[in-house]
């Protein structure tokens, strides 16, 4: 089925786009505009107003565009010797970008200028409409490293073995897609001493770059993953676990009951995720690619 792309799993980020339209005019038309003799009034005011209105209504004009908030629209109209240039700069914080809003604004401004000048310029033409620049979105935060990162996946469950486990396999798949080599995957019972031993082994002996645990983050009597993780990490990275919960809370009212923590032991990043398949998948959506910047900080590269 054809339709709008699903952006429900994306995180909101700052996004900007700049689009430009160029209208070719006769030199005599430029002179008229400078003299304030345009037949239908000021093209500058009309272009700015029409571009702003169009950018705000893009979703209503283009069937597959998402209705999104617009935080800022800036329109510049400048005269050249034989052309008029319209530049539309749009900014927002949302799940999808604003290049179509900028383009729509530039297009409608160009059409407005065309309509206003057509009585005096038979050679009038819209020469081009294009995106000059766009920034933002999660791709902006993708990091590149000069070596392959290594990871371990640990599932805590009293009732599941590796054959029955699904959440751990989802974690493995996502880690591989983000450039990790999986060096070990195990399923253990909810036993604090076993969990502590394995976390130390992954960090101190195998020296993996990331350990993701799944399960044991709730409020049940056997849920001991957060307490055990806090016991062995050297620095807690509370912002990671807070964001994972905040991201999940927008999708289910139960996310706030997860107690998972995130932290560092040596140069190993340890992150607790819930045990359910849906919660794990959503948590991974929130982590990547932003979590990858942590290695430049751990390795001393700074920001």
Based on the coordinates given, report the CATH architecture of the largest domain.
3-Layer(aba) Sandwich
Q: What is the total number of structural domains? A: 2
Main beta sheet strand tally, sense and closure: 6 strands, mixed
Strand runs, count: 10
Class by SSE composition: alpha/beta
Strand content: 25-35%
Would you tell me the overall average pLDDT? 91
- Name the CATH homologous superfamily of the largest domain: MoaB/Mog-like domain
The fold-level CATH name of the largest domain is: Molybdenum Cofactor Biosythetic Enzyme, Chain A
Span from first to last CA?
43 Å
Specify the helix fraction band. Answer: 25-40%
Shape: elongated
| Rg result | 27 Å
Task: Give a short overview.
With 303 residues, the protein is of the alpha/beta class. Helix content is 35%, strand content 26%.
Description:
- Helices cover 35% and strands 26% of the residues.
- With 303 residues, it is α/β, with parallel strands linked by helices.
- The chain has 2 domains: 13-140, Alpha-Beta Plaits (2-Layer Sandwich); 143-298, Molybdenum Cofactor Biosythetic Enzyme, Chain A (3-Layer(aba) Sandwich).
- The protein has a 6-stranded mixed beta sheet with strand order 6-5-7-10-9-8, with helices on both faces.
